[in-house]
Every structure is written in C-alpha cells, then in structure tokens.
Design goal:
The structure holds two protein chains of two kinds.
Chain A: H1 2-10, H2 16-24, E1 26-28, H3 37-57, H4 67-76, H5 81-109, H6 117-139, H7 144-155, H8 164-172, H9 179-211, H10 217-221, E2 231-233, H11 234-259, H12 282-293, E3 297-298, E4 301-302, H13 303-324, H14 326-329, H15 335-358
Helix pairs in contact in A: 3-5, 3-11, 4-5, 5-6, 5-11, 6-7, 6-9, 6-13, 12-15
Chain B: H1 16-43, E1 55-60, E2 68-74, E3 77-83, E4 89-93, E5 104-106, E6 111-114, E7 119-121, E8 127-129, E9 138-144, E10 151-156
Antiparallel strand pairs in B: 1-10, 2-3, 3-4, 4-9, 5-6, 6-7, 7-8, 9-10
Classes of the chains: A mainly alpha, B alpha+beta.
Amino acid sequence: MWQRALGWIEARVDLSTVRYLADHKRVPIHPHSPWYYLGGLTLFLIGVQIASGLLLLLYYRPSAGEAYESVQFIVSRVEFGWLVRNVHSWSANLAVGAAFLHLFSVLFLRSYRKPRELTWVTGVFLLFLLLGFGFSGYLLPWNELAFFATKVGTGIPGSIPLVGDALQRFLRGGDDVTGATLSRFFGLHVALLPALLVVLLGVHLLLVQQQGMSVPISVRKRLRPGDEVPSVKFVPNFLLRELVLWYIALAGLAALAAFSPWELGLKADAFAPVPAGIRPEWYFLAAFQTLKLLPSHIAGIEGELLGVLGMGLAMGVLVLLPFLDRRSSQEKPSPLITVAGVIALVYLLVMTVVGYVAA
Amino acid sequence: MESPRPSESTALVVPRRTVLDALLGAGIASSAAAALYPIARFLVPPAGGEPATASVVAAKLSELKVNSGLVFPFGSKPAILVRTPEGELRAFSAVCTHLECTVQYKGDTSQIWCACHNGTYDLSGNVASGPPPRPLESFTVAVRGEPGKEDVVVSRT
C-alpha cells in the first residue's frame, strides 16, 4: 500500500531530488560521531515545544486577570492538561540543555571551521532565540516567581548607559512589569520568536544538508592519503539510530512530566513582598550569580554595568568564534580554543551550582 | 526477500525482514497512539464550564416601567424581564429559539421581538410570527424586599 501511495505521488510530483538526497546523504563514522545526534535531539525537543505549545494556546488567556486562572484551568480541569503543560515546561528545559551540549560539542570538535562558519552563527542565534523563548514563556503563567524573575530580568538591561531606560521600557511595555508586559511577552513567545525560529532553523538545516557533517581535524589527520572516512547512509542507518534517541527523550519527558510536575505557585501580586529563594531558570543562573557577586563599583564603573557589558562581549565572541579561530580554518589544531572552551564550561557549571546552593 | 530453500518444508515461511518490519511498524503505531490519545482528549473542552444559575436579582421594581423590557444576565446567557402594559412581571430566556440571537421588548406592539429574522413572541413567550420553532423558555418571577425598594428575583422554573 505504501509503495502504491508513493507511486501515485511520483506519477504527479518529481521526487527525484528528494530520492537522490536520501540515497546519497552519508554520515561519517569515527570515535566522535555520537555528538552528531545532539542537533537532531534539539530539533526533536523544539518539535515537542511547537506541538505542546499549540495545544496550550487552545485554553491559555494572555491577560493579567485571566492568565493564572487559565493555566490553573488547564492543569486541573482539561483532560491531560497537566501532561501537556508539564511536557511543555520540561521539554523547554531539555531543549535548552540539548542546545548547550550541541554547542559545546561543535566547539570542541571545531565543526564550525571553514566552510561551516554560517552554520555556527545561525546556531548561536538559535540558542539565543531558545533563551528568549524561555524568558518570555516563564512569565506567561503569571505566578509570583515568574513575576519577580521578570522584574529582575527586564531590570538588567536598564543599567546599560544611554539606551538602558528606553530598552527596559520597551521590554516591559511601561515602567513596571504589568499586564502590558504579559501581552508583550505573549506576542513575542507565540508570534515573533516562532517566526524568527522558522527562518533561522530553515537556514541552519539547509546549510547542514548542503555541507554534510564535519569530520574533526584529528580524525582527518589519522587518515592515510587517498583514504576516506568510513561512513553510513543517513537514510535509514543514522535516522533510525537518531529515532532511538528521540524515543529515549520522549520516555524521559513523559516520566519527568508525570513524576515531577511543574508547580504553578501563587498568583502574581505586585504588592506582595518578593518570596525568598527567588531565582531564574537554571540557564540564566550563571549570569544571575555573576551579577550578584560583582561589587557595586569596580574602578569607578558600576559593577552591574560591567557585568552586562561583559556578557555582551561574551555573546559577541561566541557568535564570531569561527572568525576568531584562524588556525582551525587552516585545518591546524587550536589548543587555545579548547582551553577557553573548558574555562567557559567550568565557569558556567560552577556559577550555576553556586547559584543553586546560594539561593 | 529470500525465498525458502527447496529442502525446507512448504509450510508458511515468513521472511525475517517482514517480521522485523512488522515489529517496527507496530512499535511506531503504538507510540503514535500513546501520544495522540492524550492530545485528542485534551482537545475536547471540559464539560460543564459553568454551573447552571438558579436565580438572580434582575432589577429593582421601581426601575422597571410599565410596558417595557430589560435584558439581564442569567448565568452566562441573557434573559429578558418584561413588565406588561397591565403591570404584570414576566421573565423568559432572551435567547431566540430560531438561531440564538438575543431578543428585545417592543413597546409599540407589546411583543418580544427578535431583530435577526423578525421573529415575534407574545407576552407568554409563545411564537406569534416568524421563524422561531419553539416558545421562549420561561422563568419564575418573584418580588422581594421592603415596599418601595423591592427586588425582582428571577429563578429557573
């Protein structure tokens, strides 16, 4: 039946390009190949986010008066509403985690080197987008923790000189975090960011498709002249293995959603004191902790401003990394990048743990 | 596809590939079902979104002139309170039985009128003319409170 359906389509639509790509796409096999699965895993989790997000949209109401109640309605009255909401929250966190792992694996394997610089740049912007999704989505249930976390988070850009105040007002839709902020974040979360995601992800995947998988410099070096890196076909060999990982991810998601539900907490109240132990989502914890540890003034400059500038600089370096790492573009080892990557990774991990313990 | 060797019995031989394909297909189908079932249930809006209202205070008696009508919320649906030319109080659902438009009181003809398709009801809620198929649902009206400050209370009959 499958063959007949395919035949019916092929009699009308020319599928030869698709057939050719599916037949010829190959994935290199070497000791570092398992890292190739992480991009696909991130893609799968983003797919879960889109599906569960569309479902939540059926019942969610984006206003200060109704948002909290509508989420309460979803988790308590709608059948399987608890499952959909918990899957959405958990999958968001796992997607950010998978994206970070993907980024560091690409960094350590230098997969961003020529000719894949643009793939890296789009990938870093995709990570920023995911963080934007996380930040804007966190506010939507309109609970106490989210309300104050958003107050702190939107307050940070306020310390930037000249444009800070305007930027903060723009983010909040006013001087304070109010229902206007909620409308804004909702629009960002369900319209603007998804539109950007589709475009960036399309370019990212197209580039991956066109250029194929990068083979690490070390693997290439060990080849005898004239030899090729052993590889398997993408369809079906690699794809089926990737599917197994997706299955494991889905099972993990379902287990987390069922056994570790996301709390809704109390409804946001602008006149309540900030609850103790307030902290942002784990992926902002390192940045949050860094700002906390900075003294109020360093060499006459405000500490927070210095922290924000430092983060901006780090983000810029991250985007431009393939262009800064000249050695690996010439297929030469660049141990400095590895050292910098390890330092960055250790810093992020330590600050995240400190942030958890300190709170 | 391998064909069975001639030396083997002619009993039904299922190729290994077919069995594996079937297992894979069944696995994928059952996980798809496990994902789609909760989604299908999620899509169905929960029943009984709001409890049925038993009775409401529709108006102050002093506010309601003779030969006039007032549409007021009865639970989540509109209802209409009418003071007839004779001064009697009557209440009905204001949802037209034709296509659920909200009806209104017309003082000049002393009828309840639906503007959507020109349906009319008499002051007992029965269809007088036009397309409505059934009479309006009628409610019980009671007057409560001190003289001069009476509330008109409408309840489900």
